[in-house]
Amino acid sequence: MSKHDNRDYYVNRELSWLMFDERVLGEATDTSNPLMERLKFLSITASNLDEFFMVRVASLIDMQHAGYSKPDIAGMSIDEQLGAVAAKTHDLVDTQYFVLMHTLLPLMEVEGINLITKHEDLSESQKEYVDRYFEEEVYPVLTPMAVDSSRPFPLVRNQTLNIGALIGKKGEDSRDFATVQVPGGLDRIVEIPCSDAQRDREGGSRAFILLEEVIERNMPKLFLNYDVYCAYPYRIMRNADLSIDEEEAADLLKEIEKQIKRRQWGEVIRLEVADDIDPGLMEILKKELSVRPDNIYKIPGPIDLTFLMKMYSLPGFDRLKAGKHVPKPIPEINDGDDIFEAIRNHDILMHHPYQTFGPVIDFVKSAAKDPDVLAIKQTLYRVSGNSPIIAALAEAAENGKQVTVLVELKARFDEEHNIVWARKLEKSGCHVIYGLVGLKTHCKITLVVRREEDGIRRYVHLGTGNYNDSTAKLYTDVGLLTCAEQIGEDATAVFNMLSGYSEPLYWNRLAVAPLWLKDRFIHLINREAQNARDGKRSHIIAKVNSICDRDVIKALYSASSDGVKIELIVRGICCLKPGIKGVSENITVRSIVGDFLEHSRIFYFENAGNSEVYCGSSDWMPRNLERRVEIMFPILDEGLKKKVIYILETLLADTVKARIELSDGTYERIDKRGRDLINAQEEFCRWAAAQVTQKDPVENSRVFIPIEGA
Fold it and tell me: What residues have CB less than 8 Å from 402, skipping those under 6 apart?
């Protein structure tokens, strides 16, 4: 056993993820954030927790059912993990609702935003309005369902909000269960007239009530011949992790369609109920839904806080939001420029969302129209609802170009979306492939093959984020446009591998998972360790979303023990513990949670003064390195390398949004006393604006501190 196998040196993956959601929740409590931004962050924690249950908790329960006994990276059994996760999530939910009910709702009232969470609190005039709204807008949509000897317990759909009730025939002493689904097609937030007390406040007021409260108040109208003894909202979460045997599936697309439907029948892994629910009603739900006690959450407020994002989006509250950043132009590309000529002149680096995603869209659009373009090849993992890239690819095929698109059908919760796009592209004449059996294709790459005067030239886009013009305004990512010959050759090899299982004998510049990327990372880490042992300069900086691969962590521990300075910027899961004497005392870990989702993956290796910089699609996780097709690409141009290093330097200089991981795996904010207040994301907004007017603004930045050896 290696000295680095000690379970105390690692953090459980699931608990580390929950600590990330706590950091997001910390933004909802941060008084420096505008009020509506705090609501937004609280909503994000709820959305995150939903996915965590449907995927991660579901996976643990599946392993428990299967009798899986191998401990995790931190030495915890499945039962231990489920117990710890339940305790942590109950604490997290308690904190969510404390923040909402005792901090944010009172602050909203001060600002004239009245969210009525109990229909009993309506004024008489508001009750009249709500009842009329119910009869005119809501009642026709509802389907009340009673349960008795002739009507079995109905299917309660995943993630739907419902109202359960105990009812009895008038004049009879009986209690039957009934339920009605709160319709997802209606707005959950209903604006109503203000009461006299609300209207008298200075500055104007608005009042809102949630749709489930409107329905709950009017339940007797749904069961006219019954007494309604009680009615309470509830919501369930089902196991939504797809189980697909790709080896046996004759048609992967049809098999995934079939599995998506089964999500509605998956095991119930979470039940949320009102905290004052009638005990008899609670027992019925618990029995019929077969939910274990530690997965029942009694909620002291509105169930499903994702509605707060809709609250955030309501018009009229801009004064309570942060200023909206408008992505800036890429200085190397002006409107009307020939994008292929611009790429031939110089490799182009893009930093989203600070800089516009437009050139990536224009790259595909121009290729679709250009008569000299012979072929377009692209991987698609997640795209937007009305994707201009999909439209351009379809147009390219209709224009007679050879278009090959890999659509990843197994992109979690985007399966239905991607099936629709795959069929649309096929109808347009594109050659659509679904990747390699047993692997997700997660890399972000586009290849355009063009005939030019001096022969065939290949243009390539490589990125750290998806080809999604919507999330490109919210996620931080790095992209590279290049026509470097060796990268073009590698790009061709990638697509030949994906479409024809043809593995190249060697790669020029790209490192690809699951073939050689993990070995490449460990080689680069070990090279820094050897340099440290030889007395040469050594330094590693890595920005990723998650670190939980044991082999990578052990290599980092070993390099730290040899004296390598290692600075990690990890948004989410981090199973590594920094600062352990003799193990990781040369490692620091920071997590940044800000207005934009940190999504880029960037790697810096000092290499004894001859620094190397890479970007890619892969995190340091087993799934990325062993079960996905991923690409890491080098930044070869010295000027662009300097820009990428500046991105890392700025993130490391952040004193506002950064949290530092301690040696016990917990996180704390940076003590700001005596420090410059630097918000990295705000700095990047300023830098993007400066690049439009300055040729090279990096050295003029207030956080520019040259990394030794760079």
Answer: 374, 375, 376, 431
Domain co-membership, 246 together with 310: yes
pLDDT tens for residues 135-159?
A: 999 999 999 988 876 667 888 888 9
pLDDT of residue 422: 75
- Half-sphere exposure in the Cβ direction for 601 (13 Å, CA): 26
**What residue numbers bound the domain in which 575 lies?**
512-700
CA distance 412 to 410: 6
Residues 365 and 414 in one domain: yes
The whole-angstrom distance between residue 470's C-alpha and the CA centroid of its chain comes to 13
Is residue 328 included in any domain, yes or no?
A: no
Name residue 598's beta-bridge partners. Answer: 476
When the pLDDT of each residue in the chain is averaged and rounded to a whole number, the result is: 90
The answer to whether the bond into 329 is cis (omega within 30° of 0) is no
Q: Domain for residue 104, yes or no?
A: yes
What's the CA gap between 193 and 215, in Å, rounded?
A: 18
Residue where one domain finishes, among candidates 320, 347, 382 = 320
Helix, coil or strand: residue 475: strand
Q: What is the pLDDT of residue 500?
A: 77
Residue 514: is the preceding peptide bond cis (ω within 30°)? yes
Q: Is residue 169 part of a domain?
A: yes
* Helices and strands, number each (H, E), in the chain: 21, 27
pLDDT digits (tens, 9 = 90+) for 345-396: 999 999 999 999 999 999 999 999 999 999 999 998 888 778 899 999 999 9
Catalytic residue among 119, 351, 442, 599: 442
Q: For the chain, what is the largest distance between any 2 Cα atoms, rounded to a whole number of angstroms?
A: 92
Domain boundary (289, 320, 351) is at 320
Give the tens place of pLDDT for each residue, 667-693: 999 988 888 899 999 999 999 999 888
Q: Flag whether the pTM goes above 0.90.
A: yes
Q: Is the pLDDT of residue 706 over 80?
A: no
Residues 211 and 253 in one domain: yes
Q: Does 355 lie in the same domain as 457?
A: yes
Q: Does 601 fall in a domain?
A: yes
Note whether 163 and 259 are same-domain residues. Answer: yes
3-state secondary structure 17-35: HHHHHHHHHHHHHCCCCCH
Q: At what angle do helices 415-427 and 388-398 cross, to 10 degrees?
A: 20
Same domain, 473 and 601: no
- Angle ∠(126,129,131) on CA atoms, nearest 5: 110
Q: What is the CATH number of the domain that holds 654?
A: 3.30.870.10
pLDDT digits (tens, 9 = 90+) for 485-496: 999 999 999 999
**What distance in Å separates the CA atoms of residue 552 and residue 314, rounded to the nearest whole number?**
45
Active site residue 417: no
Contact 267, 238 (CB under 8 A): yes
Run of H or E including 493: helix 485-500
> Do 626 and 669 fall within a single domain?
yes
Query: What is the DSSP secondary structure assignment for residue 1, as one 8-state letter?
Result: -
In the predicted model, what is the mean pLDDT of residues 28-47? 97
